[in-house]
Design goal:
By secondary structure, this protein is an all-alpha fold. The protein is 88% helix and 0% strand.
Length: 225
């Protein structure tokens, strides 16, 4: 009997030990799952921020590109007038001044304006010209969009891959933070464009929800299934 009881006690001890180990491993898995979920939530916030920023950069791109086109046309127009006025002034400057004295300052102003516009449009060294601004915003918009897609792929694949260690995930997250800071430091999104981007994205989301709800009303059986 003592042998039987000792055997039963040994088996119970083994069973309790196995249960304890199972609970411990389950607790560690749950902790890991929570960490990965929090990481995915942070990545989604960064994705949303990059999406709004890239949209604002594209809005600024369109704005400054339109201004650049206008300046190009203005430069061409005033340049043509200024060139004609310059030729005319060389041929009959004294006659024009004596006959039409008010025309002289107009000719000088037109020539000066044409020279200024040509300089503003064609000098790449000036960073705040519309031509340089729209190119800078366009490049930043592409970089933000590319980084956003990288984060999305990482969030939907590696974050939930059990073979990828948590240290690796944390290191990649830190790299994403550095990349995001570097992209935003090149040229900042303008406040008016950022607000416009938020409204644009909000409007798109409302349209998608309205379209989805209308499709469900048309096909209620498929939505139930």
């Amino acid at each position: 009997m003592k042998v039987i009881f000792s055997s039963i006690s040994y088996r119970l001890a083994q069973f309790n030990g196995a249960m304890g180990a199972g609970i411990s491993s389950q607790r560690i898995t749950e902790e890991d799952r929570m960490k990965r979920q929090n990481l995915q939530n942070e990545l989604r916030k960064m994705q949303n921020s990059l999406h709004v920023t890239s949209t604002s950069h594209y809005i600024s791109t369109e704005h400054y590109r339109n201004w650049d086109v206008r300046l190009q046309y203005a430069s061409l127009f005033t340049g043509t007038i200024g060139a004609g006025a310059s030729v005319a002034s060389k041929l009959a400057w004294k006659m024009m001044v004596s006959n039409i004295p008010r025309l002289a300052p107009i000719v000088v102003a037109t020539s000066t304006t044409s020279l200024l516009l040509t300089a503003i449009v064609n000098l790449p060294q000036i960073q705040n010209t519309p031509g340089n601004l729209y190119q800078a915003h366009f490049r930043s918009g592409i970089e933000c969009q590319y980084l956003e897609r990288q984060m999305k792929f990482f969030s939907e694949t590696e974050v939930w891959d059990s073979k990828v260690a948590w240290e690796t995930l944390a290191a990649k997250y830190e790299k994403f933070l550095r990349d995001k800071k570097e992209v935003n430091s090149k040229i900042k999104s303008e406040n008016w464009a950022y607000r416009k981007a938020l409204k644009k994205i909000e409007s798109r989301d409302k349209e998608k929800k309205a379209k989805s709800s209308s499709e469900q009303e048309v096909n209620p059986r498929s939505s139930v299934e």
